[in-house]
Amino acid sequence: MRRPPVASGRFGKPRNRGTLAAELRALGLRAGDTVVVHASLRALGPVTGGADTVVDALRDVLGPAGTLVAYAQTPDNSDPARWHLTRGYAVPEEHWAGLRARLPAFDPSRTPSFGVGVLPETVRTRPGALRSAHPQSSFVALGSRARHVTEEHAPDCHLGEHSPLARLERLGARVLLLGVGYDVCTAFHLAEYRVPGRPRLSYACVVADEQGRRAWYHYDDVALDASPFAELGRAYEATGAVTRGRVGDADCRLLSLAPAVAHAVEWLGARA
């Protein structure tokens, strides 16, 4: 008999679906919540069934009225001249033209996420999962509010007022950091759009036009910068607004999205 996979980890005995669900409830996650999850499965330690078990446990806690959301970015869909920033490696300039001609168009139903770990892909490939249509900064969602969260994501707005983040804010969503730090807390990017004078950047990616033909899409948007988020998160946590606990072997945090964004606007604005 083939054994189910076990997510990697160095400490503790393997958790199962029920154990993880109990620990998530103890942390404060509730039935009916809409929650954006950022996770390191390695930090959770060994989990029987791997990422699928983690998603199952989250959905068990959230119940039929809840919604599980993950960030499924595709920054690798970008001009080869910027791959040293978006993919983590550079390519010689003489190859740029050929790469531009061959880079596939973003397809919400098929394009895998990039650089955000296993959990978003596990959510994305679940039956019934929906994904927002931004070609570089999409979100995936499962649950009762999945369509409302993911619809009408403007193609020229990564993470601002016309993105799922603003909709999640209005829904009273929460953020769950499973074994990861504030440096990956996507919600803080919404605050960047609300600080006057933030720098802007020109972006480019490949999309399919209305006739299904491959085309490059160019747009200007806020220049996103997560470099201060670790310090910002520590400052917000010092206010007492964050719940901390352990799930598996991981140090985890649970916070409400809207007040965290409001704090981030003030904090970033004071340093502008």
Automatic annotation (TrEMBL):
<dbReference type="Pfam" id="PF02522">
    <property type="entry name" value="Antibiotic_NAT"/>
</dbReference>
<dbReference type="InterPro" id="IPR003679">
    <property type="entry name" value="Amioglycoside_AcTrfase"/>
</dbReference>
<keyword id="KW-0012">Acyltransferase</keyword>
<comment type="similarity">
    <text>Belongs to the antibiotic N-acetyltransferase family.</text>
</comment>
<protein>
    <submittedName>
        <fullName>Aminoglycoside phosphotransferase</fullName>
    </submittedName>
</protein>
<dbReference type="GO" id="GO:0008080">
    <property type="term" value="F:N-acetyltransferase activity"/>
</dbReference>
<dbReference type="InterPro" id="IPR028345">
    <property type="entry name" value="Antibiotic_NAT-like"/>
</dbReference>
<keyword id="KW-0808">Transferase</keyword>
<dbReference type="GO" id="GO:0046677">
    <property type="term" value="P:response to antibiotic"/>
</dbReference>
